[in-house]
Amino acid sequence: MPFKKLHANLLESLERMNISEPTPFQKKSIPVIKSGSNVFCTAPKDAGKTTTLILTTLQKLKCEAVGKAPRAVVLVENKERAMEIYQAFLLYTKYNSLRVYVGYEELHIDIQKSEIFEGVDILISTPKTMNKLFLLNGVSTSQLKIFSIDDADFLIQKSDTSAIISITQSIQKCQYVLYSEKLHPKLKRFESYFMEYSKIIQL
After folding, report:
1. pLDDT (tens digit, 0 to 9) for every residue of the chain, 203 residues total?
2. Roughly how many angstroms between the first and final C-alpha of the chain, as a whole number?
3. 108 Cβ contact list (under 8 Å, min separation 6)
């Protein structure tokens, strides 16, 4: 069972929230993500995608703060979703030293730059804001270990695709995990940009 092989801090958090059994999607996806592969994770709503994203991100960072530059990035559609994911992360980071930061279009970019400069481990942002930070040297990607895109279905309709490609082109070495309800051809196209040799987990 995948939960048994998680960091002790995460197991304690899961126990506190009375989560004892992984969902079928989590059983399939967590070991593959932990292996370090790039992964397309496709499953219907309420399959446990958000919890998988949080657990695998925290596992990758060993549940402890290191340095100042973000080691994990989570891209989301908008401010509302950014805040939801942020609150969900806080449930798991309450008893460890990890620093989670959330950025979005409505928050002035200079404020974000100075707050990120103070030191963060996990950066939650929208593609446009992340790209703007990137272009203004407001965020270093030199320490990035894992880059996740939450509910990536929004990229099928929106113009955020170019922002994502722009960001990922400058990242040297990183694991990419893309979560969506369906594996749309537009998402599959990321294989030729940053999702090389990716595995597909479908439920």
Report:
1. 557 788 888 888 888 888 888 999 999 999 999 999 999 999 999 899 999 999 999 999 998 999 899 999 999 999 999 999 999 999 998 888 899 999 888 888 888 888 888 899 999 999 888 888 888 877 888 899 999 999 998 888 767 888 888 888 888 889 999 999 998 888 898 998 999 999 999 98
2. 17
3. none
CA distances to 53, 89, 120, 126, 132 from 163, in Å: 21, 24, 22, 10, 9
Q: The whole model's pTM is what?
A: 0.91
Contact criterion met (CB below 8 Å) for 49 and 56:
no
SS3 content of the chain, % helix, strand, coil (to 5): 45, 15, 40
Furthest-apart CA pair in the chain: how many Å? 45
Domains of the chain: 2-202 (3.40.50.300)
Q: Six-digit token pair at 123?
A: 């950066």
Q: Tell me the pairing of strands 146-149 and 72-75.
A: parallel
